[in-house]
Amino acid sequence: MKTLYIMRHPQKSTSNVKEDNFDLKLSEHGIEQTHEMGERLRQMNIQPDLIVASPANRTRTTAEIMALELKYNKTIMYNEVLYQAFLNELIETITYTFDTVNELLLIGHNPSLTALVLTLVGHKDEVKPGSVLKIEFHTDSWINIAKENAHLIWLEEVN
């Protein structure tokens, strides 16, 4: 069994319109949302073996807060492919994960995360900022993940 947690970064700051999209920070509310979600997942005993995130400022901050809240003391992997990723790039990132990883937390952006969830489990709603979805795959290898062995277990949203 492989478990994938998909998280979209929470609300971003819009204070500096001259800032490049890559450099946008989380808003204060987005930071609060991240702590709230991290605490919620910790209470559910979620302990990812690996956190992979886009290197954009807002997803880096999200990953760092989630690592803190989940007491994740390993290296966070930042993958440039996850910023403005195409669907096939997201799937490749997941399928190239070492099989010693059983629980993977992927932190990224829309619209690619919504496309990923639609493709894997048929969930048609937009992945909202700060949301986390848990998908289980009935396989022992990430290379074998597919719509046929994927099951959406839950969706958690922030306020």
TrEMBL record:
Amino-acid positions noted as binding substrate in the UniProt annotation, renumbered to this chain: R58
MF annotations from Gene Ontology: phosphatase activity
A GO CC term assigned to this protein in UniProt: cytoplasm
Coiled-coil blocks: none
Superkingdom, taxonomy of origin: Bacteria
InterPro entries reported for this sequence: His_Pase_superF_clade-1, His_PPase_superfam, PGM_Phosphatase
Protein name as it appears in the record: Phosphoglycerate mutase
Originating species: Candidatus Marinarcus aquaticus
